[in-house]
Amino acid sequence: MRVFAVMLLACAGWTVNAGGGEKDAAKADLKKLQGTWTLVSMEMDGKKAPPEAAEGIKAVVEGNKVTISFKGEVKSASTFTVDASKKPKTMDATAVLAPNKGKKAFAIYELDGDTFKICTGEGNKRPAAFATKEGSGFSLMVWKRAR
User: Fold this and answer.
1) In terms of residue numbers, what domain contains 97?
2) Which of 56, 91, 103, 137 supports an S-S bond with 16, CB 3.0-4.6 Å?
3) What pLDDT is recorded for position 44?
């Protein structure tokens, strides 16, 4: 249950505003993110969550806002910006709903067709790779576009 709660907090931080030097690339990625996503897998601090922990978690991206729900109940929402010019691509998010309102998260992301991978840091730390290890405070989530 602790892993699930932490993952919801990490999801709450999934917020990004398109902008920066490579505006066209950021706009293209923002457009690709639009729609509904289903959580496939998650891991935190080097520990993989059991597959059933991802069941019922969906993300809906509209513009630069993402809303996360669990079995139809909204659990978090954030606004975000993406920077597609960096390697790996980066995302900065700000939660817009209590209890995490105003909390920021820094992430890296990868879009590959209908798969979205995001690795989020804790506090002001941004992961450098799509990996977590014990004590890192990093969360790794894989989402698939809902059909």
Assistant:
1) 2-145
2) 91
3) 95
CA distance 83 to 89: 6
Task: Produce one character per residue of 73-87: b if its CB has 16 or more CB atoms within 10 Å, e if not.
Answer: eebbbbbbbbbbeee
| Each residue's pLDDT tens digit, 18-73 | 344 457 889 999 999 999 999 999 999 999 999 999 999 999 999 999 999 999 99
Domain count for the chain:
1
Alpha helices in the chain (DSSP H): 2-12, 23-33
Which CATH number covers residue 67? 2.40.128
Beta bridge partners of 44: 47, 139
How far from chain centre, in Å, is Cα 66? Answer: 9
